[in-house]
Amino acid sequence: MARIDVVMPQMGESIAEGTLSKWLKKVGDAVKRDEPLFEISTDKVDAEIPAPTAGVLAEIVVSEGQTVAVQTIVARIETEKGASVGGAAVASGGGSAAGNGAKAEKATAGAPPKSQPNAPAAAASHPTAAPATAASLAVAAASAAASTLEGRLRTRSSPLVRKIAAEHGIEIAALSGSGLAGRVTKRDIMQALESGARGGTAPNAPAFAAGGAGYPLPSGWEGDVVEPMSKIRALTSEHMVNARRHAAHVTSFFEVDLTRVARIRAKQRAAFEAQNGEKLTFLPFVIKAVTDCLKKHPMLNAAHDGRNVIYRKQYNIGVAVAVDWGLIVPVVKGADNLSISGLTRSVNDLAARARAKKLQPAEVQNATFTITNPGVFGSLMGTPIIPLGTAAIMGLGAIEKRAKVVTGADGEDTIAIRTCAYFSISFDHRIVDGADADRFMADVKKTLESFPETAL
Q: Does pTM top 0.85 for this prediction?
């Protein structure tokens, strides 16, 4: 008889903690080795965590909604059936102080950064009426704190947190972190930005972000249902607001004739799917055209660090996937080295594992260009938000047959039925000019409209 500890896994080099979002088993349940045991959420991805051994779930240590450091024991598995299942009170949380605390933490952990506008968001906030020396005193205090063990732990935050802090001039050591040993998390830094917007200390944070003057936050009315955001919804909200604020967004639209691609697909689809065992869609053709054209237009495959333009030499294409609980963007790494069949396998595999919560953090990182496909839901066109760290995102509208004027070989115009779609390109005008974006899109259009039949 032995008990095996189940710990919070390390889901990436820069990830120090995770939120246990859902238990898939309850105390007393039999579990098989590698069977999904619980779900976790990090600032990168949601994932199911398998059981490390077969046995009986004897004890649940960490309740749903709690955020704990990696390697923290979250449960224990008894390797022989019929063993004690102590710790059931912890799992149920019935009436005990630990259970009540877990419930309170669940309510707090699941809430979005804006759900408590009247709560003090960060120790770095200063009243507007404070004397000018308050800022210098705060900096001095932050420097002193950084020299202590607690301060060093606090400043050892994730690269994303440090990047946001640097962009907005925030001293991490001056913040009161909610993570392990006072570690400053992404939620803490976003709350600091919102607090700064109220107090006027964060020049880049918009006043409306936290209910600024003349723009109060809404409250629930009688009969309304108020529930905290899910972890992925809260993170998506933060990311979208920050991305919109960070880049100078401009969007252009092109209509692309996909008749040739549609004919190639229809002609070779059966043989392709029989050979590869994968469903052939329009998306791999679009990714292939995009990666070929990015090499001729490097500013679309770039990033901006505030002072410099970083031209990426990798071509990693993020593909937005709608899941029941939100949106996730897995990344096809090295897309320029893949054929249509390779792109098909990669896209289908990533999408399937995204919906099954099987992705690893590395599989949603380091995109250099992103494609979103709202057309599958019937949308004709859109203006997508550019993900942080990239210069552009392409949106694909619904693919449908339209009556178009076509010039024949003899120069005479006729009306023909063509398979078409509207493509949009949202680009960061800090580093991409309209002419650059339009030339890129014109090349993508030309590539798709003259796609070679031998490309498969």
A: no
